[in-house]
Amino acid sequence: MNAIGSASSPRWYRGSVSGLAAYLSNLRAWGAGAAELVLHHGPATEQFRFVHVIEQDWNATFAQYHARGIACHAHASLAPGFRLEGWHTDAQVCAAQYTPLLAFCARMAQAEGRAVTMVAHGAGDTKATLHANQEATRGFLHWAEGEIFRLGGGVRIAIELLRARGVSDVHAASSREKVMTIIHDCDPALVGICWDMEHDWFNGLRDPSWTPRPPDAFLDRVIHAHVHDANGETLANHYPLVFNTVPYDGMAPLLVAHGYTGPLILEIRYRHALSLGNPQFWMGQSYAVLRRLLTDTDRALRSGRPA
Ligand SMILES: [Zn+2]
């Protein structure tokens, strides 16, 4: 069965490496087999430390997950200095931001003896054209492929399908088609798609022809997946799996039935879980919902019925 995991914001364990041990016991009890660390280096505000694992904690954090048998993946820092639109202004500065992230991912891959995926967002400069954002993202990916080769492999980059802001959105990766265009010429062994099911569903609200099933050419390139719910009234996202607003119970099974063997990562915001009550309870509930879904899918596939 596919591993289930969650995005590991330090917020969930009060930001201390010692608090992490207790949180990891919860994760194991919930059946976590994977995790996604949001890696950051450089100056970080308090707010940033809630979400990102800062460089001084990289090794100790990974060591604890690794000791518990939880496979680590990564998400590139969300800080402005890591935005790929910077590739056009100064590719060298942008590359220098990503070099330590890729090197750490390669170290995790060596320790775990399997590939580590790093999720990145494409360029989305709102003052630039779609073409410029696509070119910046392609430039980065081309450089990263060489860098991964230089590091001895073991790292894959997943470009995340993001929410589009309006019909004239110029973000390089804010639709199924755009993500496919971006990664089309990349080495499939090194670069693929992070299918964020909520973002995809949200974009579909504007598109009458949208269905939960992306084309096979899209599913073929999915190497990582994000699952979270949206509040049906406010459309705020990154909620625990509680509202059933997002049709993940159709999307996750069809991805697995397509042959996807990667992890399903719950991307749940602590304050949204807190708004419902005990955050740890709601995270545990979300693991249970996803586990039930994957168990049913697995059973259906084994018995030859369509998932
Ligand atoms: Zn996501």
Describe this structure in words.
With 307 residues, the protein is of the alpha/beta class. The chain has a single domain (4-303), classed as TIM Barrel (Alpha-Beta Barrel). Helix content is 45%, strand content 15%. It has 12 helices and 9 strands. It has an 8-stranded parallel beta barrel, surrounded by 6 helices. The model has no long low-confidence stretch (mean pLDDT 95). The structure holds zinc ion. Zinc ion binds next to loops.
The termini sit apart by 14 Å
Which overall shape is indicated by the principal axes computed on the Cα atoms? globular
Q: What order do the strands of the largest sheet run in, or round the barrel if closed?
A: 1-2-4-5-6-7-8-9
Average pLDDT value?
A: 95
CATH topology: TIM Barrel
* Tally of contiguous helical segments: 12
Count of all domains: 1
Full CATH superfamily name = Divalent-metal-dependent TIM barrel enzymes
Estimated helix fraction: 40-55%
Largest sheet: 8 strands, parallel, barrel
Sketch the topology as an H/E string, one letter per element. EHEHEHEHHEHEHEHHEHEHH
CATH class: Alpha Beta
Tell how many strands the DSSP assignment holds.
9
Q: Which CATH-level-2 architecture?
A: Alpha-Beta Barrel
